Amino acid sequence: MLNEQVNIKNSVALIDDDLQVCDAIESMLKSIGLQAAVFNNGNDFLKSQNLDSFGCLIVDLRLPDLSGLQVIEKAHLMYPYCPPTIMISGYADVPTAVTAIKNGIIDFLEKPFIPQDLIDQIQKALIFDQQNRSIHKLRARLDSGLDKLTIRERQVLRNLLDCKSNKQISSELKLSSKTIASHRANILSKCNTESLLQLASQIQACELNI
Length: 210
Prior knowledge:
Layout: E1 11-15, H1 19-31, E2 35-39, H2 42-46, E3 56-60, H3 68-78, E4 85-89, H4 94-102, E5 105-110, H5 115-147, H6 151-161, H7 166-173, H8 177-190, H9 196-205
Parallel strand pairs: 1-2, 1-3, 3-4, 4-5
Helix pairs in contact: 6-8, 7-8
């Protein structure tokens, strides 16, 4: 179970050059209590330097400057975290939709879409965003803690994660049980965790290699 708390985002970034579509989606978002930040091209969005405030992105496939796929690819390269994305298009085709999904787009809606379908996907994206931010925050904290471990502490941690006892580790590393216990305490302190079980669960959740 993750202990990282994150704020629920209620702001959506809409990147589309069709002003009528933007007005309609913005009104729809307001009706369900969400805020919208509208960008009419990809570069303006990428320059906003404000991705952390968005819980979801809605991106049109065809934009005046970049394609929607290029916008998302650049966003992932430019920022440490990119919110879940819904792609919309009036020119959808199966290969493009497949490519979008492979690039992490959670859904691809063809214009004209049913408003409720978009609302459903936005709500799903906001849930994903909260989960993703929690993992992202936890991974950053664990990375910081793990970077502080000495080579010997990493050896001890690997053995502990393999469910070996202090006595077994002591024998294999030719260290006293007291030294192993000291290393164990240092590991938990540096990683800011209360128990080995909690640390192991967090490492597994973040898919980290030790």
